[in-house]
From TrEMBL:
Signal peptide segment: none
WD repeat coordinates: 159-200, 297-326
Protein known as: WD40 repeat domain-containing protein
The keyword Repeat is assigned to this record: yes
Bilayer-spanning residue ranges: none
InterPro entries, per database record: Quinoprotein_ADH-like_sf (IPR011047), WD40/YVTN_repeat-like_dom_sf (IPR015943), WD40_rpt (IPR001680), WDR55/POC1 (IPR050505)
The keyword Lipoprotein belongs to this UniProt entry's keyword annotation: no
Any Pfam family the entry gives: WD40
PANTHER family: POC1 CENTRIOLAR PROTEIN HOMOLOG (PTHR44019:SF8), WD REPEAT-CONTAINING PROTEIN 55 (PTHR44019)
Species per Swiss-Prot/TrEMBL record: Pseudoalteromonas neustonica
UniProt entry keywords in alphabetical sequence: Repeat, WD repeat
Length: 326
């Protein structure tokens, strides 16, 4: 049996938590907060630097410039904005998508113009990923299939990737390689060109969440009980595991940040955590402001220029968190 002693050390107004690795875990209050809405948020996403937010609430989707705390254009409303549960930005911040799990709509960040729409047919979308320039979109379905959509040609190709539900999908920056996680207990690295499986990773139980870095050399997968591993996507070898002994961890969103040295996660328990990739050590942990009993962190980002962490919650609150790397 593995044991871990947690020691709380107060240092001024900040606190440091000594974690399972023996290293202090940085903790601090947020340095700023901004409320995007008073309503319960159905879904939200951040640009990779946290400068933009897209927030879905009761029949309305708004895109915010977080530097000036204003919407970029009139919010999307009507039938296209109802029950939006999946959304996200391209890394170059030129496009964003929204989905009610039965259709996918792609818009311009510059002016909110609709660039394309695709129906999922009889399939139900479980997760969506988009390439850095927004040209390719991958939709993972309950059927275990995945749709690869080219937003320029308007063509899509359907591949049977998994036997059971695809619960999570992530895409390399160039859109050529996808990482998916399924209820069949596998995480697959596969080609979006022809659906070929390039690498496979077997976890103990259902794979709930995956993440991939920009050049598809590094991945992450977490299952429903206690597997939470970094993956070497070049060799197919499982690398470090998150250095925490709690079971049943869930992540709503994650990113490889700071040139893949760190891994940033947001959880349904209003928690933001920063991990060191090489050994899975927990470096920092923050608790998002909760306006309601069951607050959840829906999206996280890292502003490398200002060395700050950004989060968006189900309460519609954007928060900025300090972190100074050692």
């Amino acid at each position: 049996m593995r044991f871990c002693i947690l020691t709380l050390v107060l240092i001024g107004i900040l606190s440091a938590l000594v974690g399972c690795s023996g290293e202090p875990v940085f903790e601090a209050p947020s340095t700023s907060q901004f409320r995007h809405t008073q309503e319960i948020v159905e879904s939200a996403a951040l640009s990779n630097d946290g400068q933009l937010s897209v927030v879905s609430e009761q029949g309305k989707v708004c895109v915010w410039d977080n530097k000036i705390s204003k919407t970029l254009f009139s919010c999307i409303s009507g039938d296209d904005a109802k029950h939006i549960e999946l959304l996200g930005f391209s890394d170059d911040k030129t496009k964003f998508y929204i989905s009610n799990r039965m259709s996918v709509h792609l818009f311009s960040v510059a002016n909110g113009q609709l660039l394309g729409s695709w129906s999922t047919g009889k399939n139900i979308a479980r997760d969506i990923a988009i390439s850095a320039n927004g040209q390719l979109i991958v939709v993972g379905y309950r059927s275990g299939e995945a749709d690869v959509i080219n937003s320029l040609t308007k063509q899509n190709t359907l591949f049977q990737v998994h036997r059971l539900d695809i619960n999570s999908v992530a895409l390399s920056a160039d859109g050529q390689t996808a990482l998916s996680g399924s209820s069949d207990k596998f995480s697959y690295l596969w080609s979006t060109k022809d659906g070929t499986i390039l690498k496979e990773f077997k976890l103990a139980t259902r794979v709930n969440h995956v993440s991939i870095n920009e050049n598809a050399s590094l991945g992450f997968a977490i299952d429903s009980v206690d597997d939470r591993i970094f993956l070497d996507l070049n060799t197919g070898i499982k690398k470090a595991e998150l250095n925490i002994f709690t079971n049943f961890i869930e992540f709503n969103h994650s990113r490889f940040v700071n040139d893949d040295k760190w891994f940033l996660t947001g959880s349904p328990k209003s928690t933001i955590q920063l991990w060191r990739v090489k050994d899975g050590t927990l470096l920092a942990e923050y608790k998002a402001t909760q306006q309601r009993i069951r607050g959840s962190v829906l999206a996280v980002a890292y502003d490398k220029e200002n060395k700050t962490i950004v989060s968006e919650s189900s309460d519609g609150v954007l928060e900025v968190w300090p972190y100074q790397p050692k």
